Amino acid sequence: MVMNYSSFTRISLALLLLLFFTAGNAIIPVKKETVKTVEPIEIRIGTEHDVLQGHYSPFAITLNANIDRLDGFDLLLSYNPDELTLRHALPGRLLLDNNWEYFSYQIFGDTANDSLAFVNIMAAADIPNVDPSLPDSAQLAGGFVELYMYISNDRTHECMFLPLRFFWRDCEDNLLFLAQGDTIALSRSVTEDPREIYGRAPIPEWPEPPDGCLDSLTQVPVPMVDFVNGGFEIVCAGSRPDMTGDLNCNGLSFELADAILYSQLLTSGIEILNPDIAPCCISTSDVNKDGITLTASDLQRLVRIFNGSAEPYPKPLENLFLTVDTMTYFDRLKVYCSSDEHIGATLFTFTVNDTTALPSLEQAASDMDLEYAYRNDTLKVLIYSFGTSMIPAGTGAVLTIPTSISPVLIAVDAAEFQGWLMKADF
Fold first, then answer.
1. Which CATH number does the domain 321-425 belong to among 3.40.1190.10, 2.40.30.170, 3.20.20.80, 2.60.40.680?
2. Which of 23, 71, 201, 212 lies at 20 to 30 Å from 281 by C-alpha?
């Protein structure tokens, strides 16, 4: 049985182990000779290769140890939240196979450094009054923590290595509890994954334990853990010529087929792609070269190039704003757009409770094309044009949706006529 408590704090693990090891009529005495070996323990953060951006990537923190008993651990990892987002952490196969009973993690940031985020992972083999016997966990080797990270879709990270590292705020970080709590195993070394990688980020301020930890811990501290940092190698677009705009990866860019596929991806998601071409498709989709893939502004830029109305690539325009309002009229929800710029494409996302209603264009967008798809209790509606039509500057109704599906607008992705991103307020 594994328990997960999001409010679990660092002090809780120490108290938990203390309660277990002192449960009963007598306190188990501290025995300095409890640890029978000082063979090093390796804890390694995995390094994932050829990782796709805009996806979740699962990977394992592995443990390799030859010890008599492991009772608990407290790990602290750091990463850049602009590059990586932790979705969740789970106990690995080693913990599940050995019936560990407590597992928890907490995500938090650094108030003094926006480029650092942390996850504190804690676990204990046994909990008082749950099971009278401590699970056997000797001869451990394999994954003992599973992490699921979202990889940033910012294309400026392409071909980069995004690190995930162990981090120390004080001596109580990154500890293993051995031999019924009598002994604490702490860091003997901290190294980077020795494999050849590129684009390393700077090592954070505290990449290893502070001095004096051997003297500050109350239990027997033994420096016997080798920590190995890791991370994600982001896949490169390749050494071939620039194929931006070749969404169907047939060697020809900015075709009508590319634009049609792009519109389908925006409404139905990348799941419609053949897995064999998905990396190629994503890597060619940043058509307006703003570092963000699969957006309405990229589709608009592709269409402008396809039909010959694109201007040369200037610096993306700043201060392009769009205000979106919704109003209910009887059984219809109307969507209004207001902007000082002509609008080339908009992608609206709604939550819905039914998939039977048909959205329709309103007067201000009557010359545009409409594409929509229902997926996972959401409705995505794309308003665009394969020609030179646009939603004129000013204020006007662009879309109507029946209120029978209880639509609630949750996201807007918009582009002006040449394909530059507009900041939407709704």
1. 2.60.40.680
2. 201
